[in-house]
Amino acid sequence: MISAELKEQYYQALVAKDSEYEGLFYVGVKTTGVFCRPTCPARKPKYENCEFYETAQQALLASFRPCQRCRPLSHPNQVSDVVRILVEAVENNPEKRWKGQDFKDLSINESTARRQFKKRFGMTFVEYARARRMGLALKNIRSGRTIIDAQLSTGYESSSGFRDAFSRIMGAAPTHVDDGQVLKASWIDTRLGPMMAVADDTALYLLEFVDRRGLEREVERLRKRTRSAIVPGVTEPIRSIERELTAYFDGTLRAFHTPLFCLGTPFQKSVWEQLMAIPPGETRSYQDIAVALGKPSACRAVAQANGANQLAIVIPCHRVINASGDLGGYGGGLTRKNWLLTHEKTAYEQIR
Predict the structure, then answer these.
(1) Residue 144's pLDDT is what?
(2) What's residue 218's pLDDT?
(3) What is the per-residue pLDDT across 184-243, written as a single tens digit (0 to 9) for each?
(4) 340 Cβ partners below 8 Å, 6+ apart?
């Protein structure tokens, strides 16, 4: 997370249109719903209306769209026609899920688009489109409002794109859902980036970093298996996990106590129970978990169950590494996994 001191510094650079800060940050303007580069020629917003991000992807996930004046995705070097055409296509239909035929319709090679976006923005085109699409839905969650039309910022041409994006990802617009079939979703800011928490009144169902690859599929699977829609809101389990996450990142929490609802097969649940038995500051290999379950040949199944965990940090799948000692995989990214393991080892030693 960007510190308050750095935010002040970035704001002064924004007001001064300081070109030395190009590429170091992007600013999201709450009143217009756009994000800009530091030297944008537009009238400068008030400090309280600014949110600062280190990458364009973070700004997109926070629901901001590229400014049409400073074109933050085209600076400092002009982008290729491929990138320009695709960025414009996403803005014309931000809730669209792109398929192979869509690239052919634009006479664009899919692998070329992937390569050029990765080189230019540090993310593939599919990741860019997903970030834009998820940003629309996450904006509603982050605002905590229950009626989609009420939280549209100025700058969106209509409410249909926002409503469709939210409905496709979360299941239904809040105005069309029976209160008896609802899970509540909330945005939680953490030291390692924002997370999405989903819960009912009794238990936490999902906790994931909002930039996790496959989050849309996780949400869709959750709402289908529970036959629920997911709408913005806060429940006691969400309040509980927010408090506990704060203590966890402060290094003062050893165990989570928020009630959990684990949606999985009996084997997956048995793996998750083993994960929660790993003490903070320690790790286990997939082989260790398989042996503990009495199924030493089930390493691959253990790895799959580990990846299917929808409760990041609380069910500590980050504590499972390869037998060689390598970190292995992690849905939230290896940088976060390494940070979590280092943090837990240090915090555990201090608590002990």
Answers:
(1) 52
(2) 86
(3) 888 888 888 788 899 999 999 999 988 787 787 888 888 888 888 777 778 999 999 999
(4) 192, 313, 318
Task: Return phi, psi of residue 191, to 5°.
Answer: -60, -30
Which one, of 224, 225, 193, lies nearest residue 207 by Cα? 193
Count of H-run helices and E-run strands, the chain: 13, 10
Distances in whole angstroms, Cα of residue 265 to Cα of each of 111, 189, 243, 262, 268:
36, 30, 29, 9, 5
Write out the catalytic residue numbers: 317
Q: What does the DSSP 8-state code read for residue 212? A: -
DSSP classification of residue 260: B
pTM for this entry: 0.64
**Bridge pairing between strands 182-188 and 65-66:** unpaired
Cα 168 to Cα 166: distance, rounded to the nearest angstrom: 6
Q: CB under 8 Å to 58, separation ≥6 — which residues?
A: 26, 193, 211
Task: Compute the distance between CA of residue 324 and CA of residue 285 in angstroms, rounded to an integer.
Answer: 9
Burial of 22 (0-12, 13-18, 19+ CB in 10 A): middle
- Whether residue 126 contacts residue 60, with contact meaning beta carbons closer than 8 Å, is answered with no
Pairwise CA distance, residues 98 & 101, whole Å: 8
CB 341 within 8 A of CB 319: yes
Over 60: is that where the pLDDT of 174 sits? no
> Of the candidates 145, 224, 193, 179, which has an alpha carbon nearest to the alpha carbon of residue 333?
193
Render pLDDT for 251-277 as a digit per residue (tens, 0 to 9).
999 889 999 999 999 999 999 999 999
For 281, phi then psi, to 5°, come to 95, -5
Could you please report the per-residue DSSP string of 113-170? HHHHHHHHHSS-HHHHHHHHHHHHHHHHHHHT-S-GGGGPPTT-S-SHHHHHHHHHHH
What pLDDT band is residue 146 in, cutting at 50, 70 and 90? Answer: very low
Lookup: tokens for 150 = 């009420």
Structural tokens at position 66: 């590229």
